Amino acid sequence: MRGKLIILLMVGLLFSGFSVLAESKSSMTELDQLADEALQLTRFGRFEEAKKMLERFAQIFSEKGVAERQFTMDELRIVTAAHHEALKSLTSVGLNPNDRIQKVTALRLATDAINSKYQPLWSEMERPIMNAFNDVKSAALEGDENLYNTELNEFLSTYSIIQPSIKISVPVEKVQRLDSRITYIDRYRSTFSEQKWMKELEGLEDELKKLFAEINKDDTDPSIWWVMIMTGGIIISTLSYVSWRKYRGQNMQQQKRKGPND
User: Fold this and answer.
1) Residue 149 carries which DSSP code?
2) What is the rounded distance in angstroms from the CA atom of residue 123 to the CA atom of residue 213?
3) Is 258 contained in some domain?
4) pTM (2 d.p.)
5) 201, 212, 202: which is closest to 174 by C-alpha?
6) Any domain includes 224
7) 82 and 141 assigned to the same domain
8) Which terminal Cβ of the chain has fewer Cβ within 10 Å, N or C?
């Protein structure tokens, strides 16, 4: 009887843990959906409807993040800032539609980055980011300062889409190193010269490649292994207990058959 109680207790603890995890996942799934719907509506130019989605997003994020403390302070700060920019873009008169889409996309990716610790959506931005950067390098090699500035602005705009996300997914020291390179190139662009900037651009290219290589190198969620180990442990414990009871029962039956004089 005691063995059964122990097994039931283990199963109960396991599934209570799953219940808490499921509730957390449920709220994040809802936030993901709201951010995604807001993005789709923005793409179709339905800005007022997208605004309502973001207002609902803010309400849930505040309830789960502040009241229930489901998010870290960094996650709260980063997503709040991304949400503010996205909402402002939808209410700004005369803003370029593409700029609106980029701001809402940044929020969408940041929300996913919290929920997806492995293979987040922002990792799929590798090609557009690297293509935009290669255009900057090509302009620098041509020695065309005007073209260089144009391409650099385009790269910075594209990079801004994933910047909130990488602050969530990537260790702070790596983000700071990458951002410092980008800030330097942007701030001192007026001193453009082909020889000087190629060295800086090559350093930035190396950082960008490392960024995407590291986020894509391991797509196995450790929580999956934890679930497998816990589940396997319970199954093994249960089977061991059942086998022991069966063995004990067979021994008792054999002893009864033999009788006291055998």
Assistant:
1) H
2) 9
3) no
4) 0.73
5) 212
6) no
7) no
8) N
